[in-house]
Amino acid sequence: MKSNVGNEAIIIDKVTHTFKTDTGLLPVIKNLNMTVPKNGFTAVVGPSGCGKSTLTKLISGLLKPDNGEVYLNGEKVLGPKPIVGMAFQNPVLLEWRSILKNVMLPLEIVPNDLSEVDKEDRAKSLLHLVGLEGFEEKKPSELSGGMRQRASLCRALVHNPEVLILDEPFGALDAFTREDLWQVMHKLRQEEPFTGILITHDLRESIFLADEVVVLSGRPATSQYSLQIPKLKNPKLDSLFSPDSIEMLKNLRKQIEIAQVQQATN
Amino acid sequence: MRQILIPFYAIIIFLLFWEFVVWFNGWPNYKMASPSDLWPAFWKFKKLFFQYGWDTLWRTVAGLLLAVIFGVFLGMIMGLSKILREALYPLLVGFNAIPKATVVPIIALMFVGQHDLNTILIAFMISFFPIAVSISIGLSTLEPEYRDILRSLGASKSMIFWKIALPKTLPEFFGALKVAVTLAFIGTNLMEIVSPHGRGLGALFDSGKTNADYPLMFAVLIGLAILGIALYYVVVVLEKIFAGWAERSSE
Fold it and tell me: A1-83+162-266 is classed in which CATH architecture?
């Protein structure tokens, strides 16, 4: 089932999803359309509880949409696929494994023809890239929150996924650590190109990292607004304080407010 | 070295205090034997001590192994299926609520003459409950993200079980095993004391009672304590090997 669109790595086509709860049906996502071009990086923002995490599960195939279709690289998503890498707010590292073994975990599951040494080299090079060289043999409990999240990003990327899904990966970190990790993300994108979706509550994060920011409406979520972010060659944190950036942030903030009001009245 | 010396001195002080209290009150040994009575009592029956000690030990371990196998199996099906959990939990709680001392004579009658079997059976029945509960709770409370990480890569259910669910449950399992060891030991002794013409340290204890050999009864208690401590530390060592990661280093 190939779609005829060429350059779009992620296509979300009129997707609707409803949860069955004890009190009845809860429509979470309604008629959502969204695309991410190959090697593009899109941030999704929206009011709390508007269905953003559900969206990540629909893209990764952990959930099936009631209506509509999701395509990854032209292939319709019918279930979980190893071409996806995921990272969550909780780094969910396995405490009984070393950092290196944690990063290598996807290579034990996804079919590949790497030797054990190749797998280690691959994991080590990623750890090096995010600044965790020397921590390979440490246990997750010996690392700080920011370091654990770096390792979690490495694990999401180790099997060269075509699509990276990030569900608020920096949400639980303090502001400075978060900014460090934003820089790490830019570095990773340069060295390890991927198509990405980033769920976030942080508008600054969204414009700093993404090429496009999509604002979801209040529940049931649909795409309410989308903003293209002009790409900078080497974005510096200072750029967040430029008049252009502040204009974009104000603009997004206003859209969030509209979505919040809509969610409250529904 | 300090780790050995401190408990060692504590035991010496305890024994001296015990000896003193008995001497000070002038208690006869049928009221309270003193530590100095214990060694002669042990020496007189030393062959029986070793032979019966071995009987008690292997029956306890056999019962415990059965409890581990059955408890893990029960915990697994209850942890992985909500329907089975709801169905089995009340049964399990009800079964556990029966004081096992009352089951002892029933089992003793049921398998009369088969002393090894009924002893192992009681040790097993009394000790599988905490294991089953810990495994089922460990499996059912696994954070969904852990599962999602593997599921999103297309991992099968059994892969998720072996790579994540099982290792993550190990610390709880060993916590339960420490409780189960003690329980199994109680079960073994209950049966050995009650069973007529039994063997094992419990039977030796009972013969001390019928022959009014009180120092022997106390010596058996000490023997049981030593066996119990040994079993407990075997579990501690296994825990260190298989679930040592759960212990935070205190730096």
Answer: 3-Layer(aba) Sandwich (3.40)
Cβ contact, residue pair B154, A141, below 8 Å:
no
What digits encode the pLDDT tens for the residues A176-226? 888 888 888 888 888 888 899 999 988 888 888 888 889 888 778 788 888
Q: Hey, are the CB atoms on B150 and A109 less than 8 Å from each other?
A: yes
CATH of B37-244, one of 3.30.1360.30, 3.40.50.800, 3.30.1060.10, 1.10.3720.10: 1.10.3720.10
Contact A215, A259 (CB under 8 A): yes
Nearest to A159 by CA among A126, A132, A137: A126
CA proximity to A168, closest of A209, A125, A225: A209
Q: Per-residue pLDDT tens for B203-232?
A: 999 998 888 888 899 999 999 999 999 999
CB within 8 Å: B245 and A96: yes
- Provide the residue ranges of all domains of chain B, joining segments of one domain with +: 37-244
* A171 shares contact with chain B (CB less than 8 Å): no
CB–CB of B245 and A86 under 8 A?
no
Q: What is the ipTM of this complex?
A: 0.76
Domain ranges within chain A, ordered by starting residue: 1-83+162-266, 89-160
Question: What is the token pair recorded at A115?
Answer: 């030797």
Which residues, numbered 8 to 47 in chain A, qualify as contacts with chain B under a Cβ-Cβ cut-off of 8 Å?
Answer: none
A139 contacts B155? CB cut-off 8 A: no
Q: List the single best residue of B150, B151, B152 to mutate versus A (max A Cβ within 10 A).
A: B152
**CA nearest neighbour of A46 among A181, A203, A195:** A203
> Are the C-beta atoms of A16 and A170 separated by less than 8 Å?
no
Nearest CA in chain B to A96: B245
Structure tokens at B42: 């042990």
CB B67 within 8 A of CB B128: yes
Q: Which residues of A132-141 are buried (b: 16+ CB within 10 A; e: fewer)?
A: beebbeebbe
In angstroms, the Cα distances linking A188 to A210, A215, A244, B33, B112 are 13, 25, 25, 75, 72
